Prior knowledge:
alpha/beta; 28 strands; elongated; UDP N-Acetylglucosamine Acyltransferase, domain 1
Amino acid sequence: MTATIHPTAIIDPSARLGDDVSIGPFCTVGASVTLGDRVRLVSHVVIDGRTTIGADTVVYPFATLGLRPQDLKFNNEPSTLEIGSSNQIREYVTMHPGTEGGGMVTRVGNNGLFMVGAHVAHDCKIGNNVILANNATLAGHVTVGDFVIVGGLSAVHQFVRIGPFAIIGGMSGVEKDVIPFGLVKGERAHLSGLNMVGLERRGFSREDIRALRSAYRMLFAHEGTLGERIEETATHYKDQAQVEQIIAFIRAASDRPICQPKSDDE
């Protein structure tokens, strides 16, 4: 079926539109844009660059997607922004394409909710079922796992990794990697436990939650170096999938240190 396009919208003839696309008043869609089936642009949306938006995504007024990244090293390289299906992209959200220094692509998964004023910078990799609350901002090269929630007015530093099922408290400044299932908060964010509410809501068993709590204490409340605690925890919980996920995340190479609980002298 054909797209429904408001007469005030400006659509480049080279743009590729899927079936049942709806484009509202005063939207602008550039030449290299691809909109999947049933994508809806409510009004006053600007989409440019090499941007692809998956089926059933709704974009609200004044969102701008695919414009030039805020990176002075960008030299008009043919980078892309890839947005998955069934996302809600609310008012004033900005998402930028990748750069040569970050793999040439910014990628957003499926079923996300990006609230008013959220920002996804160049070369970010966002998983599925992610929520960025109002005015949450991700700097360049940030990686966000599935089912992560980033609280309102939070800011995430360049190259930070946030593991799956983690939650970032509102108004937090996240400068270090956040373990899967972790809860972090604070002006200079620190690890403050596990995302217990999220674990229960996502159907993790009592046994899994009990193991995660025990492993958390072993990793962050015992004596010794972090490396020693990692090896002890890995040995003790070698058959527990969620704990193994945390261990693998910590062991993986990263540009940022791991976010840990506050020390007594902080």
